[in-house]
Specification:
Elements: H1 12-19, H2 26-34, H3 43-54, H4 57-62, H5 65-68, H6 76-98, H7 106-117, E1 124-130, E2 136-144, H8 154-163, E3 168-174, H9 184-198, E4 203-211, E5 214-217
Parallel strand pairs: 3-4
Antiparallel strand pairs: 1-2, 1-3, 4-5
Helix pairs in contact: 2-3, 6-7, 8-9
């Protein structure tokens, strides 16, 4: 059955307008983005097929162009549009994060880091550098690969903090395994960075681990 044959209150677009975007399922939201289905499948059917294939939205967003376009009815134009939407979301969250005190809007910082790091196949270490009023100066990807105390160089983090005249920093990295629990290496690295930055009066406010749909805060866990 085509979506146009559904009761008006159950069509994704009408449902969004009447009840808000949060009332829609993942498949319904994706169907609005896809706009149309293919012969024999509505946009919602096609959206469900994509979600079943990739497992969830996170894995679908992280899929390569080749994998994404292997689904019948999905082409390069759809992939490009999806990447553009994701990048606009990242930039909007970055603007929100930069607009005021990062400690007064922790959700914006967390959401930005999750959107940026979730689904990455390689470990990425980020620094969010703040001024004395905890306003964001810069958010940068600093190191890539297997992250240990020897592959993330405290000296380089200190140099960058001084170059940006930062008063504080928030760190984040991802676990491609999907497990958000910190390892012993994560704790040792955080301690080493905290000690090195303390020598130049830069405070470490938090260290987030992004994994799967989760995001662990060292500060909230009392690990800083």
């Amino acid at each position: 059955m085509a979506i146009t044959d559904w009761p008006a209150g159950e069509r994704p677009r009408e449902k969004l307008l009447q009840r808000g975007a949060s009332s829609l399922s993942d498949a319904e939201l994706l169907a609005i983005f896809l706009r149309t289905g293919v012969v024999g499948k509505s946009a919602v059917d096609l959206a469900r097929e994509l979600l079943t294939r990739f497992g969830n939205l996170t894995q679908m967003f992280a899929a390569s162009e080749k994998l994404f376009c292997e689904t019948h009815g999905i082409g390069q134009a759809t992939f490009v549009q999806l990447q553009a939407v994701l990048e606009m979301s990242r930039r909007a969250l970055q603007e929100e994060m930069r607009s005021g005190d990062a400690l007064n809007s922790p959700a914006a910082v967390r959401d930005y880091l999750q959107l940026l790091l979730r689904g990455r196949e390689q470990e990425v270490f980020m620094g969010v550098f703040l001024d004395a009023q905890h306003r964001v100066i810069a958010a940068e990807e600093m190191f890539h690969g297997t992250l240990t105390q020897t592959s993330v160089y405290p000296r380089e983090v200190v140099k960058r903090s001084l170059a940006l005249n930062a008063a504080a920093v928030i760190f984040a990295h991802n676990h491609p395994s999907g497990v958000a629990e910190p390892s012993q290496s994560d704790q040792m690295l955080t301690d080493a960075l905290k000690q090195a930055l303390a020598l130049v009066d830069v405070r470490v406010l938090d260290h987030f681990i992004v994994a799967g749909t989760g995001c662990l805060s060292f500060a909230e866990k009392g690990m800083l």
